[in-house]
Design goal:
Number of helices: 6
Largest sheet: none
CATH class of the largest domain: Mainly Alpha
Shape: elongated
CATH topology of the largest domain: 434 Repressor (Amino-terminal Domain)
Length: about 130
Amino acid sequence: MSFPKKGKFFPRENGYNGKAEQLTNGGFVEEIAAALKRSLGDSRAGVKTVAAWTGANEKTVKNWFSGTYGPSGAHLIALARHSDEVLSTFLVMAGREDLMVAIKLAAAEQAVEELLEAVRQLNREEPGDTVI
């Protein structure tokens, strides 16, 4: 069975250019590359760190940093798990900036709780002293 003459290619208005190139979909690749650079810098150590986080090959990760290609879904999840910059960028691209505010608020609450626990621990160790 063969393809009909008019059915081989997707129409150009859908963004398909007739070649097997990965399209950036509104700057996804560039935005993720910028987030990785903000988070880890543009160094070999950053590439190695991301490769360890995702299990991806270092050459693949270098392509992410350079903006040549973007991470797949599973790799993007791993990046968002480890990098607040990538998570924030993803949420902004998804139009869900409000979730980032909630995440930052939860992190601040956790930090305050840890600080209070440290103060309480100090009070237990030195019962005669008062904390102002």
